[in-house]
Write a structure and sequence with these properties.
UDP-glucosyltransferase activity; 498 residues; Glycosyltransferase; binds uridine-5'-diphosphate; 21 helices; transferase; Rossmann fold; alpha/beta; seven-stranded parallel β-sheet
């Protein structure tokens, strides 16, 4: 007789060491556990500290979920102890060392899979070698993409039609052919890799090939957010996908929301009580994700724009390392001193140095706008909370995400950044204070356009919540996915008996 233990599916999750990849995958692993699947998350020691308390709580409530904690080879890669995540690498040089250390983990992770023999690998798409491993183990490999369908369709069509090759100027807008909507972009907003062969070109080919060879791709999105693009992608790529998002909505408990991703740098009570004292929809929330850092000059422009716009705000600031400053004590930089002094005096805003409880704050009724770098998680969190956005994309696929907000869904206003860059910590051409102020006013002001935008995003917020409820599209996709993994297991068992 087959024991209950053997019957239960065991899925192992391998997240990439960056908050925007790790946090949604941890949410997905927890979702699987709630749905009766034994989930194991592979993580390194310092990264585990970011969510161990949440997993411990799940275990106490009877879920079968575990962390498999590995030592991170920081010393072998020349990194300081504790530097195990892309968010702890303030320079491109350190990021490259981190990539190297992550590569060093491969044999240990492979060994772990061979010992554990789970029924499925959920792998970040940045680990293409898990395809070969899954074939060896005879189990499905699911890639976790971390972005949305709109981005995948835009990237696919740009590669297919190469519209940028007919454009001379970096700043002239052109339309991306073959998409369900008219989407415009400039050459300067395209990733380098699209325009020229770079050091990363071969790697991207490997990633794409791994995606094609996978059992399918897990998406953190929901059907009603981008229906035309879900259908377009399924029709034109033939890649199987399951839409499970927005997975951040799985954090219902206030404690989970507050503790998501890292230790917060403020007291959640002081933030919430400050927000309680504000009018509904009056506060601008500003956060550029877990990786982006701006130059001193850019931080000053943002500060001046906020000063001039007069809207109350919460601004999450990261530490800037100014390597050009010979005075070591002055290399670390957060904000212009004059600015912080004046806002504290006038109680106009709240500065969070470090990590904010983003999901918790966005949901507060006083938050009326979100100045975002257009990271996919932040976009989903803004949509889920029903907050219109001021868009300021920086790197990765963020310019594509911006177009979804500003040209398709019409729930965002661009500050007008024109230049894609490869590293989140690298300087960009300065976006001046007037541009920032104008975009903020367009979202936070009472004009008809802003009112309509708010209505649209509120409607999407309702659809997001519906998608993850029982019977909703994402909840149904999760049920189908678990059935698909079970069927794969059973088919393999039958074939083995033969
Ligand atoms: N985040 C947070 N507090 C912070 C900064 C970021 O909780 O102070 C979370 C945010 O809620 C989101 C993730 O970190 O879930 C950032 O992911 P995103 O895809 O938006 O951007 P990335 O950091 O990958 O550039």
């Amino acid at each position: 007789m087959v024991s209950e233990d053997e019957q239960q599916l065991h899925v192992m999750f391998l997240p990439y060491m960056a908050p925007g990849h790790m946090m949604p995958m941890v949410d997905i692993a927890r979702l699987f556990a709630v749905n009766g699947v034994k989930s194991t998350i592979i993580v390194t020691a310092f990264n585990a500290l970011r969510f161990k308390h949440i997993i411990d709580r799940d275990i106490r409530s009877g879920r079968r979920i575990a962390l498999e904690i590995l030592h991170f080879p920081y010393a072998e890669a020349g990194l300081p102890e504790g530097c195990e995540n892309l968010s702890s690498t303030p320079t491109p040089e350190m990021s490259i060392k981190l990539f190297h250390a992550i590569n060093l983990l491969q044999p240990r992770i492979e060994k772990l899979f061979r010992e554990e023999r789970p029924n499925c690998i959920v792998s970040d798409y940045l680990f293409p070698w898990t395809v070969k491993l899954s074939t060896e183990l005879g189990i499905p490999r699911l890639a976790f993409s971390g972005s949305g369908f709109f981005n995948l369709c835009v990237a696919h069509n740009i590669e297919l039609y190469k519209p940028h090759e007919n454009i001379q100027s970096e700043t002239e807008t052109f339309t991306i052919p073959g998409l369900p909507d008219q989407v415009k972009i400039t050459r300067s907003q395209l990733p380098d890799i699209v325009k020229t062969k770079t050091a990363f070109s071969a790697m991207f080919e490997v990633l794409k090939e791994a995606e094609r060879k996978s059992f399918g791709v897990l998406m953190n999105s929901f059907y009603d957010l981008e229906p035309a693009y879900v259908d377009h992608h399924r029709k034109h790529t033939g890649i199987k996908t399951w839409n499970l998002g927005p997975v951040s909505l799985f954090n219902v408990d206030k404690e989970d929301k507050a503790a998501r991703g890292d230790t917060i740098s403020v007291s959640k009570h002081s933030c919430l009580s400050w927000l309680d004292s504000r009018k509904p929809d009056s506060v601008l929330y500003i956060c550029f994700g877990s990786l982006t850092r701006f130059s001193k000059a850019q931080v000053t422009e943002i500060a001046s724009a906020l000063d001039a716009s007069g809207h109350p705000f919460i601004w999450v600031v990261g530490k800037v390392i100014d390597a050009n400053n010979n005075d070591e004590k002055k290399q670390e930089y957060w904000l212009p001193d004059y600015f912080e002094d004046s806002i504290t005096k006038n109680d106009e805003g709240l500065i969070i140095r470090g990590w904010a409880p983003q999901v918790l704050l966005l949901e507060h009724p006083a938050i009326g706008g979100f100045l975002t770098h257009c990271g996919w998680n932040s976009i989903l969190e803004g949509v889920s909370a029903g907050v219109p956005m001021v868009t300021w994309p920086i790197f990765a696929e963020q310019f594509y995400n911006e177009k979804l907000l500003t040209q398709v869904l019409n729930i965002g206003v661009p500050v007008g950044n024109e230049t894609w860059k490869i590293w989140a910590t690298q300087d960009s051409p300065l976006t001046d204070r007037n541009k920032i102020k104008n975009a903020v006013s367009a979202v936070m002001g009472g004009e008809d356009v802003a009112v309509e935008m708010r209505k649209r995003v509120n409607h999407l917020s309702k659809l997001a919540k519906k998608a993850v409820e029982e019977g909703g599209s994402s909840s149904n996709d999760l049920t189908t996915l678990i059935k698909d993994i079970r069927m794969y297991k059973e088919t393999c068992e039958v074939e083995n008996v033969r």
